[in-house]
Amino acid sequence: MAVTTITPQAEMEIIEMARSEQFSPDAIAAEVGCSLSAVRRVLLKAGIELHRASKVDALGPEIVGDIVSRYNAGEKVKSIISQHGIDYNTLYAALAQAQVDVRVRADYLEGAMEQRKRQAVAMYEAGEPLWRIKSETGFHQPTLHGILHELGITLRRDRARERRANENHAESEWRDGDARLRRAGDGSSGLVEESVPR
């Protein structure tokens, strides 16, 4: 069972082991016979940062060197990660640690993005539902509306509001004209109560 109370002598031992950088926090806890959280408290109090070995450090310099040389030679990332049994994040972390400039096909990415935008706008203009536009182009409704706004395209919901407003205005003018005709037919110049429903 791990000791919960740390003696001053044990604290010094923990600090010395951590400064030697030969022991992980888990190894220190096992050696001293205390909990990992106790080791962390002692090191925090002493101002010593805990560093976990990263996945890149675990690969070792030979493998990192191989990754960097193959990447710089133009080998596909997918091939490199499958060869070494690592994930994309570890590969890019190794490249960053080695200060390698990452290949980005910006021209391709920008062209693909513009093509997806054009497709989304065409689908929107054709009246496709938003869920279908998202499934085919990947643009969610707020992003799509931002694209349409940038291009000066009126949103369908705004068009519908405008159409309803025009219809209501036309109906209102029709009612006003109908009421005037009825008043003129009566020969009365006063106000007549309308029977037309609103």
Can you tell me about this structure?
The chain is mainly alpha-helical. Among the domains are: 8-46; 55-97; 106-153. The chain has helices at 8-20, 25-32, 36-46, 55-59, 61-72, 77-84, 88-97, 106-125, 130-137, 141-150, 156-186. Helix 1 (8-20) packs across helix 3 (36-46) and helix 2 (25-32) packs across helix 3 (36-46). The mean pLDDT is 78.
Q: Mean pLDDT, as a whole number?
A: 78
The main β sheet shows up as:
none
Report the oligomer: single chain
Beta-strand percentage range: under 5%
Task: State the share of residues found in helices, binned by percent.
Answer: 55-70%
What does the radius of gyration come to?
36 Å
The total strand number stands at 0
| SSE order, one letter for each helix or strand | HHHHHHHHHHH
What structural class do helix, strand and pairing data support? mainly alpha
Summed up, the helix count is 11
Unreliable sequence segments: none
Task: Sum up the overall morphology in one term.
Answer: elongated
Distance between the termini: 83 Å
List strands and helices in order, with pairings.
Elements lengths: L7 H13 L4 H8 L3 H11 L8 H5 L1 H12 L4 H8 L3 H10 L8 H20 L4 H8 L3 H10 L5 H31 L12
Helix pairs in contact: 1-2, 1-3, 2-3, 8-9
Keywords:
0% strand, 11 helices, elongated, 198 residues, mainly alpha
